[in-house]
Design a protein that fits this description.
With 305 residues, the protein is an alpha/beta fold. The protein has eight helices and 13 strands. The strands form three sheets. A seven-stranded mixed sheet has the order 8-7-6-5-11-9-10, sandwiched between helices. A four-stranded parallel sheet has the order 2-1-3-4, with helices on both faces. Strands 12-13 form a two-stranded antiparallel ribbon. The protein is globular and about 60 Å long.
Length: 305
């Protein structure tokens, strides 16, 4: 069985692009399952798949994050990777789907888990917003704050990979454009654009942004439940552009040098093991000769940066 890719909400599971992409596992939150049930649920996943890669973005409820770390600590296993990559919800769902696509390839669990951070750099995530008055994810100037009080104000905001904010002129629908400023910079490689509507009636993303970014396809999906909180308004249309082709994703990951984790022995790419959180370079040995467990085994969430 391929490595299990797990999420904590069904709205982070986008439709599979082909019949080869496996579904993601939806873990029950604390309000739906007690600790004993969560331990049984995770143990069954490990028994069936061998390894579990779970997305634990920092915008999840604190109780959900703590539950996942607690389960991992009680099971005392290095076969659960908890990924805390901070992307907007729709972009997170796209990254989840990319890992689902890679999980059926010949990559080891350690490479699949550590590939998430690499692939996140190739996702362009943003939103069309009716207000940026409470937005704290992207730098917002005083003028943009003041313009947010206008009932017809709309802003094109890019949160990742580089923050960018543009005030749109017009109604934000067909024909709207960035008054005097460039549109949010798009990807320089082939992508598909996915968007999800909140309480904002606009076709700007599909009609204006998609052609400007020269995307190869456009798809609409339901808005993730956490998106209005992430963007600090329900008046939005969230969007994200990502590489859809699994062969290109495979080449990206396969081109990176693989290392062996000095702590748990799994393969990895990058500078840190996604399963045990040990850095690539082994720390100097303690004077007593004992190894100090890496921070992920403490059972508590790592500090957020």
């Amino acid at each position: 069985m391929p490595t299990a890719i797990a999420v904590t909400s069904a709205d982070l599971v986008l439709p599979a692009p082909d019949r080869h992409t496996p579904p993601a596992v939806v873990l029950h939150p604390p309000g739906q399952l007690d600790l004993a049930g969560a331990l049984a649920e995770t143990s069954a996943l490990l028994e069936r798949h061998g390894h579990v890669v779970a997305f634990v973005p920092p915008w999840l409820p604190t109780a959900t994050v703590q539950r996942l770390h607690t389960v991992r600590a009680i099971l005392e296993t290095d076969r659960i990777a908890l990924l805390d990559i901070d992307l907007p919800p729709l972009a997170t769902a796209l990254l989840v789907r990319q890992l689902r696509q890679l999980s059926v390839c010949d990559f080891s669990p350690g490479v699949i888990a550590s590939a998430a951070r690499l692939l996140s750099h190739y996702i362009h995530a943003g939103a069309l917003l009716g207000s940026v008055a409470r937005l704290d994810r992207v730098p917002v100037g005083l003028k943009a704050h003041a313009r947010s009080w206008s009932p017809s104000a709309q802003f094109a905001v890019l949160a990742h990979p580089t923050p960018h904010l543009v005030k749109l002129t017009g109604s934000g629908g067909r024909g709207a454009h960035a008054g005097g400023s460039a549109l949010p910079p798009g990807p320089a490689y082939a992508t598909h654009l996915t968007f999800a509507r909140g309480q904002l009636a606009s076709d700007w993303v599909a009609a204006e942004l998609a052609p400007a970014w020269r995307v190869q396809g456009v798809m609409e999906n339901p808005l993730p439940a956490d998106s209005p909180v992430w963007w600090a308004t329900a008046k939005l249309v969230e969007f994200a552009a990502a590489i859809p082709d699994p062969s290109v994703l495979y080449q990206l990951v396969a081109s990176v040098r693989r290392e062996e984790c000095h702590w748990c022995g799994l393969e990895l790419i990058g500078d840190r093991c996604a399963f045990c959180a040990a850095p690539l370079a082994a720390p100097p040995p303690a004077e007593t000769g004992d190894r100090t467990p890496p921070p992920a085994f403490a059972g508590a969430p790592r500090p957020r940066h």
